[in-house]
Design goal:
The chain is mainly β and 417 residues long. It folds into 2 domains: 178 residues, Immunoglobulin-like; 174 residues, tricorn interacting facor f3 domain (Immunoglobulin-like, Sandwich), CATH 2.60.40.1730. The chain is built from 3 helices and 28 strands. The strands form 6 sheets. It has a 7-stranded mixed beta sheet with strand order 4-7-2-1-10-13-12, with no helix packed on it. Strands 18-21-16-15-24-27-26 form a 7-stranded mixed beta sheet, with no helix packed on it. The chain has a 4-stranded antiparallel beta sheet with strand order 8-9-14-11, with no helix packed on it. Strand 1 and strand 2 form a beta hairpin. The two termini are 31 Å apart. The N terminus is likely disordered.
Length: 417
């Protein structure tokens, strides 16, 4: 009881003092571009989405022990630069960052619009750090050795360097200018000491790299004949992909699950998102909104020839093909839009009850997927490794992170408690 009263008094005091709510964020991705080794500096391009509703400012902690220069901050929805200022801990607290440390240093960004309820304010921060402890030379090699708390990251080597060591499983991609990129997804709950080692290489040719931060940092995957070597195969940077999806399983007797997935559109002129319903499934109650503003979007369910009459091309179109179409204003040059698409699926072939056991057997194509079991069920099998915890209302939650550019087929079994 004493601990309860103390907690209550602390909460009441915070409320009376008008303490600002905790800053929250999602979808963070960091790209480290290593500059010349003698500079011991690296450029950081940091994408992040602020999610605390009503916030008009976002704070980025500037890491102690580094010399830093902030070059620019952009609003990812409009592509326009934002106003920012480097402040100390006291000023950060006075402007809403309750957790700011007095000795800390923070980048304070004025948002283009307040964060909408259940929405996001998406930013891209461009800054340069000099950090002799994170980036240095040793025995003829360069070493990038840094604790990474962000879950999606890439490290780009300087021109003329080859990768000889990476201490965590990573994708390796050669960019158009010849630089080698090491891309890493952290599926665990804690920061990791990520270490990359490289050395000079003499037999690589390069083209100048554009410094436009709006340049696409990924390329689409191109399928090829898998009966022979994939000579023309190309693939995107998996950690840069920012689609994720949540599955909320209803009781298995219904064969149904509610889901939502977040998707960013950046292609100029595009005015719709088309989701073709998998064969054997039925979608109901679709809805969509623009996360940047909270605006509800127009949604249509089209079947068969209705799809082609709207000028939408779908491979293998039949009279039974079903498509959910979300309409929005065409993307202008330099703009992006982030959508949240929600619907309920019924799929008796892949989600069902067999001998009093819940069975889920479904392929996931995105790099981040979460499945929440229905109330009253406990997990007994999961074929693909995932992190497991409980939701606030006592349901089992399984998060799957796939850093490879392919699908995973997730098989789950559960029984009643």
């Amino acid at each position: 009881m004493r601990h309860f009263i103390l907690a209550l008094l602390t909460l009441t005091a915070s409320t009376l003092c008008g303490q600002a709510p905790r800053q929250t964020q999602t979808d963070s991705y960091t790209r480290y571009e290593l500059l010349s080794p003698e500079s011991q500096s690296f450029r950081i391009i940091y994408d992040v989405s602020a999610t605390n509703a009503g916030a008009t400012k976002y704070f980025n902690t500037l890491r102690a022990g580094s010399e830093h220069v902030v070059d620019a901050v952009w609003d990812l929805m409009t592509g326009k630069e934002l106003i920012w200022k480097i402040v100390g801990g006291n000023e950060a607290r006075a402007n809403g960052l309750a957790s700011a440390q007095e000795a800390g240093e923070y980048l304070m960004v004025s948002l283009a619009r307040p964060v909408p309820k259940d929405g996001q304010a998406r930013l891209r921060i461009d800054k340069t750090y000099q950090d002799v402890n994170s980036y240095y030379t040793k025995n003829g090699t360069i070493v990038f050795d840094r604790s990474l708390g962000i879950k999606r990251n890439s490290v780009v080597l300087p021109i003329g360097y080859e990768l000889i060591s990476s201490n965590y499983p990573s994708q390796v991609i050669q960019e158009e200018d010849g630089r080698i990129k090491v891309s890493f997804m952290n599926s665990g709950p804690s920061s990791v000491p990520f270490k990359v080692v490289a050395r000079p290489a003499d037999n690589m040719t390069f083209r100048p790299s554009p410094q436009n931060p709006w340049e696409r940092l990924t390329v689409p995957m191109v399928p090829s004949n898998q009966s022979r070597a994939r000579v023309t195969y190309s693939f995107g940077e998996r950690s840069f992909e920012n689609r994720d999806i949540m599955y909320f399983l209803q009781q298995p007797e219904t064969n149904s699950f509610f889901l939502y997935h977040d998707y960013t559109e950046s292609r100029e002129g595009i005015d719709k998102y088309v989701n073709v319903v998998r064969a054997g499934s039925k979608a109901s109650g679709p809805s969509a909104r623009l996360l940047d503003t909270g605006e509800q979007l127009k949604v249509e369910t089209l079947v068969g020839n209705e799809i082609s009459r709207k000028g939408i091309e779908v491979n293998g179109l039949t009279d039974k093909t079903e498509a959910i179409v979300i309409w929005f204003d065409p993307i202008k040059k330099g703009e992006t839009k982030r959508l949240r698409i929600s619907e309920t699926y019924t799929d008796p072939n892949r989600y069902l009850l067999v001998d009093d056991q819940l069975i889920w057997d479904r392929s996931f194509g995105r790099n981040r997927n979460t499945v929440i079991l229905p109330e009253g069920w406990m997990l007994t099998a999961s074929s693909i490794p995932g992190t497991i915890d409980m939701t606030e209302d006592g349901k089992v939650r399984i998060r799957f992170v796939n850093g490879r550019p392919d699908n995973i087929r997730v098989f789950i079994k559960a029984i009643r408690r």
